[in-house]
Predict the 3D structure of the following.
Amino acid sequence: MNNSKRISWWGLTWLALSLVAVSGLVRAETPEEKGYAIFKEADRRNEGFGDNQGEMLMILKNKNQNTSEREMQVQALEGKGDEGDKTLMVFLSPKDQKGTSLLTYAHKDRDDDQWLYLPALKRVKKIASSKKSGPFMGSEFSFEDIGGQDVDDYSYKYLRDETVEGQDCFVVESYPKDKNSGYTKIVSWVDKQHYRTLKAEFYDRKKSHLKTLVSRDYTLYLDKFWRPLEMEMVNHQTGRSTVLKQSNIKFNVGLSDNDFTKNSLKRAL
């Protein structure tokens, strides 16, 4: 009889613990918490890349489908501690833009810093925060798009699940905290398996659909880091588009902070 009571008591205890666990699942994270968790996981999966460099072809297409091309060299250095990543983009062609360089310091606790070197003027120009929504070198990518993005620069909201190109995705809205952002929100499709952004829709300050970014041909490096070999940004309001094609991407090439100074802009070539 005593044993029976003991078994019954343990059974009730187990049941109570199970109900607590189940209720915890029922009290699932809010859409805001889930959206943040998705982007936090995507960010975590990119940690530890160290540095990388590669080549990039920029193809600009106007509304009449006429195209022009520009070649660039791109380098990136992973931030340490509270520091954000550093990136350097240098134009190799066409001839009239050769040597033009953009240096970006991403920050986790304040606005990013960006400097543009114009060889024709032989001077380094800092990009003001109020100007970051402007186009980068005439493309459909803004300085804001090209700059570093930190998870905590946005607030988030999970919307739904959806399939893109046969891949199951989370659909998440993100809202820039920066008052100078050119966007009111960005809707992103993040694949559930690898947490890569396959598509993103950008909405302007009037809350109208401005642009759509599609990232293709994701390639795995070092068995951990995914990089898209092609990114296409389409401007629905102007009919123009820009494609960025990456190639010859290499990791752990020995870059240091000395390669990402304002002086390095002038000696990039």
Observations:
- The chain has one domain: 39-266.
